[in-house]
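Input record (one chain):
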Amino acid sequence: QVQLQESGPDLVKPSQMLSLTCTVSGGSITTSFYAWTWFRQPPGKGLEWMGSIGYDGSLHYSPYFRSRTSISRDHAKNAVNLQMNNLKPEDTAIYYCAASGRLRSFRGDDMDYWGKGTLVTVAL
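The corresponding structure, as predicted from the sequence alone:
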């Protein structure tokens, strides 16, 4: 069974860059037939799809996040990274890593596995 674990800073200052890592166990980021996906959920708001990277390296981004977000793979660590620059207080959210067998899906309901999420606060 695939397990996902998000890690990264709890607090980021405005205008700085956020770097999060999703460490994958129980599967390979390159051979397991999944799209490794990032979502976030701001306080009091719904789940937002940010983007994904497929087992084949194919990338898909939400238009809302495309200009300041990058998703990549770390083969040595069997992990997927999320970087987002120019953070703002409204980027405060719980960030989730998920895996879906539907490679182009952006729906939370299509995810097969979820990490527990990590809360990132953007503040001075």
